[in-house]
Specification:
By secondary structure, this protein is α/β, with parallel strands linked by helices. The chain is about 40% helix and about 15% strand. The chain has 3 domains: about 5-20 and about 35-145, no CATH class; about 205-280, Ribosomal Protein L15, Chain: K, domain 2; about 290-520, Four Helix Bundle (Hemerythrin (Met), subunit A) (Up-down Bundle). The protein has 17 helices and 18 strands. Strands 1, 2, 3, 4, 5 and 6 form a 6-stranded mixed beta sheet that branches. Helix 10 (about 300-325) runs parallel beside helix 15 (about 445-455), helix 13 (about 395-415) runs antiparallel to helix 15 and helix 15 (about 445-455) packs across helix 16.
C-alpha cells in the first residue's frame, strides 16, 4: 500500500473506483476524454502565484502536484484547470474535481497555509468557479482516501458500474469490460438488452512483416525504413505500426529497436520456416497482481482444469462449426460425435481424459478437413495432419499459420499482463509459450484452418508455391507473403461476438478473450467463456 495517496487518485476514485484500481494497481493507462479536459493550455487564470508545486501531507496521507496556485502570503487557493465548459450540475463542478481540490487544500493546510476554498477554471466558458471546503466536502474527501486504502489493501478490483453514462466516454472500456462482466456475472444465456459497444471494433495500427532474407530495418525520423538486399527501400510510419515481425536473416538497427521499445511496439522473431522464436519488448505492462493470480491458478489443478475444459470444448465446437458450414458431404454421425466430444470435454474429470477427448476430436476433424478443399490437383490433397517437418503443401501452410497465430496470442497476452509461458492446459516446458498455445486453441479452426482452406480454394496457392525436399515441404517466398496476407485479412474481419452481440475483428476478439481470462482468475466471473461462433 502506498504511504501517500496521490490527489489525482482521489479524483479517479470519485469518478469510477474500478478505473482507479486499473490505473493504480494494474498499471494500465489510457487517457479518458473526461480526464483530458484537465490538461492545461496557454490561457490560464490570473494572477498565478506558483506552478507545479509538489507538496505532501503525511497526516492526511496525501501527496499532490498543484499545477496552479494563487494567493498571497500564507493564503493559498489551489486551481484546477479544465478546458471544457462548466458542467450543468449542482455547484457547477463535478465531485471528482471537488474532492481533488479539497485534498490539495487539506495538504496546503497541513503545510501551514490558510486554505478555505479552491478554484475550478473552465477555459471554454472563461469562468472561474469557487469550491468551498466545507465540512461535508472535507468528510467526503477523507472517506474516499480511506476507501482507496482499503481497496489497495484488499487487492480486489471494484465491480464495474452498471449502465453508467461515464463508461461511454471512458477509454478504459476495452480493459474494464463493464457491460460484459456484468452480463457474465448474471449467468444468463443471452443479454436482456443489447450490450454497449465500449471498445473499438478493430485496431487501426497494422503489423509489419519482413519476410525477405537479407533485409535490414532502420529508423529514419518517425518512420521505419526497410532496405532489401537489391537496394529497394520501403517505409512505414511508426505510429501506424502495431508489431514488427522478422523472419529468418533480417537485421534491425539498435536505434530502431529502442524507438519501438519506448513506444511499446513488440519486435517478433521467427525462423525462416515461420516458427515463432522470441520477442523484444520494452517495459509496457507491469501488472504483477495478475501474474501472481495466474501462478496461483496454474498451481491449482482443479482451477486449471476448469479453464482447460472450456478452451478445449470451445475448440471442438468451432471445428464442428467449420465442417458443418463448409463440408456438404459431412455425415451426421461425424457432427454428432464432435458434439459429444465437446460435451464430454466440458465435464472431463482429469487432464488425461481431456487430452483424450481433444485427440479423438482432432483425428475426426482432420479426417474431414481435406473434403473442404476444392482443388483437383493431387499434389494439394490432404490426408491428415503431419508436421516437423510437414510432408505436404496443406500441412506446410497450416504449420506456418499456427506459428503466426501463436505469435498473435503471445503478444495479446503480454499486452494484457499475463505470463505467456505459464498455461492452464498446456503444461510448462522450457521455451514453450504454454498460455499462448492455450488461448489459440479455440481460434485454430476459425482463423488458421479457415485461411488455409480459403487460399487453396481461391487458387491463391498452387503447386508451384511449394518446395519439395526429402525431409518435407516448404513455402516459397511468394507463398509466405500470400499466407501472411490471407492471415491479416482474416484477423481484420469483423465477426459478431456470440455472447455480447456486437461486431469486432478477430484480432480484437483475442484481446477480449484475454481480458475475460483475467477476469476469470480474479473471480469476477464464474468461469472462462470460450469464443464459439454460432
Amino acid at each position: 500500500m502506498p504511504e501517500l495517496v496521490p490527489a489525482g487518485m482521489i479524483s479517479e476514485f470519485a469518478y469510477c473506483p474500478r478505473q482507479c484500481y486499473i490505473r493504480s494497481t494494474e498499471g494500465e493507462f489510457i487517457e479518458c476524454e473526461d480526464a483530458a479536459e484537465g490538461n492545461q493550455s496557454d490561457k490560464k487564470p490570473k494572477p498565478i502565484e506558483s506552478r507545479s508545486v509538489y507538496l505532501s501531507g503525511p497526516v492526511l496521507g496525501v501527496t499532490c502536484r498543484l499545477n496552479l496556485l494563487e494567493g498571497e502570503g500564507r493564503n493559498a487557493i489551489p486551481v484546477e484547470y479544465k478546458k471544457g465548459e462548466a458542467p450543468n450540475v449542482p455547484g457547477e463542478v463535478y465531485e471528482s474535481d471537488r474532492v481533488k481540490l479539497c485534498a490539495q487544500g487539506l495538504v496546503l493546510r497541513e503545510n501551514g497555509f490558510l486554505c478555505d476554498e479552491g478554484l475550478a477554471y473552465f477555459a471554454k466558458s472563461k469562468k472561474p468557479v469557487p469550491v468551498k471546503f466545507d465540512e461535508s466536502l472535507v468528510q467526503r474527501t477523507r472517506e474516499i482516501i480511506a476507501q482507496i486504502r482499503q481497496m489497495i489493501s484488499e487487492g480486489k478490483m471494484p465491480p464495474p458500474l452498471v449502465d453508467s453514462p461515464k463508461c461511454i466516454r471512458c477509454s478504459f472500456g476495452g480493459i474494464c469490460l463493464p457491460d460484459e462482466v456484468n452480463f457474465l456475472r448474471e449467468n444468463k444465456e443471452s443479454p436482456t438488452k443489447e450490450l454497449r459497444m465500449l471498445l473499438p471494433a478493430r485496431d487501426d495500427r497494422v503489423p509489419v512483416y519482413v519476410l525477405d532474407q537479407g533485409c535490414s530495418i532502420h529508423k529514419r525520423g518517425d518512420c521505419l525504413e526497410i532496405r532489401s538486399r537489391d537496394g529497394k527501400i520501403s517505409s512505414a510510419r511508426i505510429m501506424e505500426i502495431s508489431q514488427v515481425c522478422l523472419y529468418g536473416g533480417v537485421e534491425i538497427s539498435t536505434p530502431a529497436v529502442v524507438e519501438l521499445m519506448q513506444r511499446g511496439i513488440p519486435v517478433l522473431h521467427f525462423t525462416h520456416g515461420g516458427w515463432f522464436e522470441g520477442i523484444c519488448l520494452g517495459h509496457t505492462n507491469k501488472n504483477i497482481e495478475l501474474r501472481i493470480r495466474q501462478f496461483e491458478w496454474a498451481g491449482d489443478p482443479e482451477k486449471s482444469l476448469a479453464i482447460a475444459r472450456s478452451m478445449v470444448s470451445g475448440k471442438i465446437k468451432n471445428c464442428r462449426i467449420l465442417l458443418r458450414r463448409n463440408d456438404e458431404e459431412v455425415a451426421k454421425d461425424v457432427l454428432d460425435r464432435l458434439a459429444d466430444y465437446a460435451r464430454e470435454a466440458e465435464t472431463s474429470p482429469s487432464f488425461e481424459s481431456l487430452l483424450g477427448f481433444e485427440g479423438a476430436a482432432a483425428e475426426l476433424y482432420f479426417s474431414r478437413l481435406g473434403s473442404l478443399l476444392k482443388t483437383n490437383d493431387p499434389e494439394l490433397s490432404f490426408q491428415g495432419r503431419n508436421r516437423r517437418p510437414p510432408k505436404d503443401p496443406v500441412n506446410a501452410v497450416l504449420s506456418y499459420l499456427y506459428g503466426i497465430l501463436a505469435k498473435e496470442t503471445f503478444v495479446t497476452l503480454l499486452a494484457v499482463g499475463f505470463e505467456p509461458y505459464l498455461g492452464f492446459y498446456h503444461q510448462p516446458r522450457y521455451g514453450r509459450p504454454a498460455l499462448a498455445l492455450d488461448l489459440m486453441e479455440e481460434f485454430r479452426p476459425l482463423i488458421a484452418d479457415s485461411v488455409a482452406i480459403t487460399l487453396f480454394n481461391n487458387k491463391e496457392l498452387v503447386s508451384r508455391d511449394f518446395i519439395r525436399t526429402d525431409p518435407g515441404v516448404m513455402l516459397t517466398p511468394s507463398a509466405r507473403r500470400k499466407v501472411v496476407a490471407g492471415y491479416e485479412r482474416r484477423v481484420d474481419t469483423e465477426v459478431t461476438h456470440p455472447l455480447f452481440g456486437y461486431k469486432i475483428s478477430y484480432r480484437r476478439v483475442m484481446e477480449v478473450q484475454s481480458r475475460l481470462l483475467s477476469r476469470t482468475i480474479f473471480e469476477e466471473i464464474g468461469g472462462y467463456p470460450a469464443f464459439c461462433t454460432r
